[in-house]
Design a protein that fits this description.
With 135 residues, the chain is mainly alpha-helical. It is built from four helices and no strands. The chain has a domain of 55 residues. α3 packs across α4. The relative contact order is 0.06.
């Protein structure tokens, strides 16, 4: 019989990924809006191949995509027409597509404000220099 105390404990870094990716159980899969394999396949097209995706991330991504579909569908349902066309779809997904544009706009505005702040500081220094000389 082998005593467990004889073996030194294996040290594992907290951020170490498991050797095999965690899979979503069939029971959990049935509760999700999309097949997990399809979601993970799309994720892996962008994520570095050396990285592994934890099960909770796969499930969360699947649920998030389900929420996006519900939101877009609710927007589409607000149209009074019997037929939903592509223009209506584009209008309904616009908020999701504008996120990147809004982020870039935020950066542009922040840069402009910093420039204005620097200009104001420069003017303040000039005023201080000019009026301190006259005193």
């Amino acid at each position: 019989m082998v005593d467990k105390k004889e073996k030194p404990p294996v040290q594992q870094e907290p951020a170490a990924a498991p050797a095999v990716e965690e899979e979503v159980s069939a029971e959990e899969e049935q509760k999700l809006p999309f097949p997990t394999a399809a979601v993970v396949r799309e994720m892996k097209k962008t994520i570095d191949s050396s990285k592994m995706v934890r099960k909770e991330v796969k499930v969360a991504m699947n649920k998030f995509l389900g929420e996006v579909v519900k939101d877009v569908s609710a927007r589409l349902d607000k149209y009074p027409y019997a037929m939903i066309d592509y223009r209506m779809f584009e209008e309904s997904v616009r908020p999701y597509k504008q996120v990147r544009e809004l982020h870039l706009e935020k950066k542009r505005i922040a840069t402009k404000l910093n420039s204005i702040i620097e200009d104001c500081a420069s003017v303040q220094r000039d005023l201080d220099a000019k009026f301190s000389e006259e005193s």
